[in-house]
Amino acid sequence: MGYALPDNHPIESxxxxxxxxQKLSSEVxxxxxxxxxxxxLREEVVQLGERVEKLTRPPSPYGIVxxxxxxxxxxxxxxxxxxxxxxxxxxxCDAIELGSEVLLNDSMSIVEARQPEQxxxxxxxxxxxxxxxxxxxxxxxxxxxxxxxxxxxRGANLRSGDLLRLDARSNLLLERLLxxxxxxxxxxxxxxxxxxxxxxxxxxxxxxxxxxxxxxxxADLFAEYQLPAPKGILLYGPPGCGKTLIAKAVANxxxxxxxxKTGDDKxxxxxxxxxxxxxxxxxxxxxxxxxxxxxxxxxxxxxxGWPVIIFFDEMDSMFRTRGTGVSSDMESTIVxxxxxxxxxxxxxxxxxxxxxxxxxxxxxxAILRPGRLDVKIRVDxxxxxxxxxxxxxxxxxxxxxxxxxxxxxxxxxxxDRIFADSSENRFLExxxxxxxxxxxxxxxxxxxxxxxxxxxxxxxKAIKRKIEGGDGGIVVIDLLASVxxxxxxxxxxxxxxxxxxxxxxxxxxxxxxxYIRTITTLGEGQxxxxxxxxxxxAATGQYL
Length: 544
Hints:
A hairpin with a 5-residue loop joins strand 6 and strand 7. It is built from 14 helices and 22 strands. 36% of the residues lie in helices and 21% in strands. By secondary structure, it is α+β, with helices and mostly antiparallel strands. The model is unreliable at 495-499, 522-531 and 533-544 (pLDDT under 50). The strands form five sheets. It has a six-stranded mixed beta sheet, sandwiched between helices. The chain has a five-stranded antiparallel beta sheet with strand order 3-2-1-4-5, with no helix packed on it.
């Protein structure tokens, strides 16, 4: 028999409350999911709205700032129209300069500033006008126009002939460009050659240091005695004797002296290295223009207070005596251009010209007169003492030598072999116009370059011997064998060029020569000359 429970029985009430709680929790969770979905949908709608707005937004124009007005207003060139606009947003007015590119909004207010365009037309500066705000430039041939200088060029040291970048839309000159045909000649770094690296030229080094360093380091004394500094120096003599090396060492030494005088950690001097043929140009007037650019660049650097050295290597190739040209007469315009730069209206301050040549007789006399190339220093062939110093420079202590080898002894034996007046060292037999004959030895044609090459040959012999399993290190045999190899290699050199030119380049002058023959081998007697080769008949006026 069963019994019925009343409606408010506690068990039934508990079961109904749990179901209600579960239903409520489910509805809350569903509400959270719906809220999250609506939030994502709202964000997506916002993003779509932004994209639609971005796609339908009209384009924002760019303009170029061509002027500044009071109260932070700017004159902007937009599509050929000049507008006065205000600055909006967080744009820094001080960062906006002439030539800057700015972005404008619908209300034609500046909302963004950018750097000027990096491209444009290349024009040549003719003259900066008196207001120093405008300049006359030439472009597209002979056309000229007046342009306005940008903020970056106002107050800059601009010179006639400078290359400038022009924004044709705004007629603004934005930037000065480097001139590649001159900049590659300018060595910003001082050459690392010192006078300690040069051997056997102590007298020449002292002369050039007196001419170059004293006027710059003791300018007050020179002014007190009213003594002008020399404008130029000519280094002349046979090839391979250290003329170019001296010029590089001058720049290094001058920089060190300047540093010691001014107290700077590192002194500076500029070295413009010009090899004669690289400035020659087939177009009329181009060589003269490049010479002007070289001196203009030198003046700019000297105005910074540092010395500038212009070094003309192979000077005879450019500045020959006027009227001696064979296929052209370019000397008639190149030489006057150099003379005008040396002592023209624009004086040279802290600029030193050094010329090097082995044919000083070909250079125009107007260049060599006092007041232009004032100091003339002959760099002659090394004698026995000079050769000793040069060999010690190349046979340093840190090289590997054979056992029981003394460097001084190696050098002395090598020099004895080079300077011996023996039959095997005879090189040329010369007949003068008066009938006298003279024998010249290899020592009469010795140079620092030959001595360096002898040492190189010896090093190579020592390396090959070591590779083949022999003893390493430089020994006497290597040096003596290298001397013989060097002499043999130079036996036929007089035959390779015109004798007249070769005799002058060799650096020997004297009685007129009518006959030359080389001496290559010996006969049975040590005094017999066998195997010599005749050099073509010497032309009238040839001196050795």
